[in-house]
Amino acid sequence: MILKYEDIIGKILSSTSLPRDQIESKIEQKLKDLHDLISREGAAHIVANELSVKLFDNTIMEPGKALKIREVKPGLNSVNLIARVMTIYDTKEFKTDKRQGRIGSFLAGDETGSTRIVVWDEKIISEMKELQEGNIVKINNAYSKVNNKNYTELHLGSKSQLIINPKNETVPEIKINMTSSRKTIKDLQPNDFVEVYGTIVEVFEPKFYQACPVCNRKVLFNNDFFNCQEHNKVEPKSVPIVNIVLDDGTGNVRMVCFRDVAEKIIGKVQSGFDAVKHENKGRQIAVKGKVSKNEMFARTELIASSIEDLDPAKLLAELEGN
Ligand SMILES: [Zn+2]
Fold first, then answer.
1. Lowest CB count within 10 Å: 64, 94, 270, 322, which one?
2. What is the Cα–Cα distance from 59 to 236, expressed in whole angstroms?
C-alpha cells in the first residue's frame, strides 16, 4: 500500500495541531538525517509514525461490497472479494503450545493484482479439496494483514466463507504464467511475478532472526519466552535473510532471500561469510520471485521465492531454439 506525499501530509494535518510548514521541515530534516537515501514519501511516512499518526485506518467495510485486490489494504476487517485462483499451495501443519492445526493457502488474482489467501479454518480447508486453479472464488468476511515479506495477505478464519465458482460472478481470465514470466532486470515493475536469469555480483552478510514456527513472523523475547503477536508463546526457529545483487547485463537489482532460499546461498555448512561470498560471486542463477518497491529506500527489489543454478546447456539450448 503506497500513500502519496500529499495524502500523508493531509493525514498529519488532520490528526495533529502542527502547521504545514513545520511538518514539511520535519520531513526535510528526516531526508537530511538519512542522507537522501529514502524517498520524500518514505521520509513523510517516518515522520507520521514518529508523531503517532495512523496512516491506515481499520475501516469496517460496508457489508456485502466486494473489493478489488488493489483496494485491499492492511488491517481491514470483513473483506469481501471475488477473484480467480492462480496457484494452490500445499496445506501445511503447525503446532505451538496453545494450538495445532493446518494452514491452507492459494494465490488469487483479479484485473488489479494478486494476493495470497491464507486459510486457518479447518472447515474451509476441507472445502478447498474441491478447489482448482482457474476457479472463481467469492470470499466473505476475511481480514487483511501484512506478512513478514511486507505483502498484504487476506486471511480466512472461522467467521469467513469461501464460495467456489459462485453463480453469476465473472473475473477475467488471468494467465497462470503471470505467476512467473521471464523478464530482464531493466523491465522489472513492482508487483510483477517474474523469472530472472542473472549472475550474483554481490553478497551482503547474512542476518538471522528468531521466527515463529507457524507464521514465520519475527518473534520478540520478553519475560523469558519468545512471543509471536499472533501465536503467543512459541519455540522460535532461527531464520536467515541474505541480500544479494543480481545482474543480467541489462541492469542489476537487489534481491532479498529468506529462509530456504537464503539457505541455498549460505549453504548448509556454516563456513564463514568470506567463503559464502567466494562461492556465490559469479554464480549464475534462475530466480523466481516478486518485484517489490522498497518505500524506505526508494528502490525496486526482487523478493526471491525460489532460486536454481542455471544449467549452461539448457540455457544454450533455449537460445538456439529462439
Ligand atoms: Zn506466529
1. 322
2. 33
